[in-house]
Amino acid sequence: MTSAELLSLFELPFLDLLYRAQGVHRENFPSNRIQLSTLCSIKTGGCPEDCGYCPQSVHYDTGLKAEKLMPLDAVLEAAAAAKAQGAQRFCMGAAWRSPKDRDIEQLGEMVRGVKALGLETCMTLGMLESHQAKALAEAGLDYYNHNLDTAPEFYGEIIRTRQYEDRLETLSAVRESGMKVCCGGIVGMGETRTQRAGLLAQLSALSPQPESVPINQLVPVPGTPLADQPPIDPLEFVRTIAVARIALPRSTIRLSAGREAMDDALQALCFAAGASSIFYGDQLLTTSNPRAEADRSLMERMGLQAA
After folding, report:
1. Coil, helix or strand at residue 23
2. Which position among 40, 89, 122, 167 bears the catalytic label?
3. Peptide linkage before 208 cis (omega within 30 of 0)
C-alpha cells in the first residue's frame, strides 16, 4: 500500500478504523490469542551508532556502562526463566553496529542452546553480511530483527551513522538466508502522521512482508537527544497499530517498547486494533517493561490466551 493510501486509513473515524482492523485480524489470526516473546540484552552498551532514541549509544551520557557479551550459561539461564514464565520466543539483542565474524560461532551456540529448550529464537545484532546471516540461519535462528525505525524522509533526523539503504541490505541478506524477518519501527519521535504512514508503507512494500512487526512507542531516556520529546497521543498510537494491521495483514504486530507507560485500557485498544504479540517480562534491552504477572492479569481479564 502507498503512503497516501495508508494516510487515508489514518484519517478514518477512530471506531471505523478499529472495526476494519479487527476484521482483517480475524481473517488472518485466531481471535483472542497473543504470542509472548521475551527480550534479553546479551551485550549491553558501547554501540558506535548515534540513534537519537538509544541509551546504549557511546555518543550520549546516559549512565549506562558497556558490557561484554554474556556467557552461554547465563543466556540459557535467562531463556529457561523466560520459558518458565510462559514465553514462546526468546529474543537476544546485542548493542553492536554489526557483529564480528569471530562472534558468530558463540552466537550460534546460543541459538542452538535456546532452541534445545523448546523456544523460538530471534536475534538483533545490527547490520549483517550475507555470510553471517547464512551462518546464523544454519545454526537454526528462526527470526532476525532489524528495524527500519521510521520513514526514509525522517530517518536523517534520528540517525546519521547508518543509512536507510544499509538497513534494507541487511533485511535482504536475512531473507536470502532463509530466516524469517522481524522488522518494525518507533513512533513518537517527533514524526508527522504522514511520516508514520511512510514507515508502514516501507514495511508493507518489503517482499515478502515481515513475519513479525514490532511497533515501539518511544521511551524518552535522559541524556539522549529525544529525552524531552512529548509523548504521542494515545489514540494516535492505537491508530498506528490499526493501520499496521491492515497494511500487513499476515504479520504478527507486536506491542514492544513503551508499554510500561500504557494503562490497561490503552493496551486493550491496541489488541482490538490488531496487535497480536507482546514483549513479555520485566525488562527489555535497557528499559523496564510491565511485570509478567501484570500481563497475565490483563490477559485473563480480557479472555486472551497465549498463542
Report:
1. helix
2. 122
3. yes
Cα-trace Rg, the chain? 18
pTM of the model: 0.92
54 is catalytic: yes
Query: If you ran DSSP here, which 8-state letter would residue 259 be given?
Result: G
State the catalytic residue, choosing from 40, 51, 183, 270: 51
Q: Is 40 a catalytic residue?
A: no
Check 182, 183, 196, 245 and give the catalytic one: 182
Catalytic residue at 51?
yes
In the residue annotation, 183 being an active-site residue is answered as no
C-alpha grid cell for residue 21? 482492523
Could you give the dihedral angle defined by the CA atoms of residues 155, 159, 161 and 162, in that order, rounded to the nearest 10 degrees?
-40
Q: Is 20 one of the annotated active-site residues of the chain?
A: no
The CA distance from 127 to 125, in Å, is 7
Given its phi and psi angles, is residue 230 left (phi above 0), alpha (psi -120 to 50 degrees) or beta?
A: beta
Q: What number of other Cβ atoms are within 10 A of residue 116's Cβ?
A: 11
- Name the DSSP class of 60: S
Of 150, 161, 160, 182, which is closest to residue 98 (Cα–Cα)?
Answer: 161
Active site residue 175: no
Using alpha carbons, list the distances in angstroms from residue 147 to 127, 151, 200.
Answer: 10, 11, 12
Strand, helix or coil at 219?
coil
CA distance 180 to 53: 26
Over the stretch 175-213, which tens digit does the pLDDT of each residue have?
A: 999 999 999 999 999 999 999 999 999 999 999 999 999
pLDDT in tens, 86-113: 889 999 999 888 999 999 999 999 999 9
Nearest alpha carbon to residue 114 among 81, 154, 152:
81
Whole-number Å distance between alpha carbons of 254 and 240: 12
φ/ψ of 279, rounded to 5, equals -80, 125
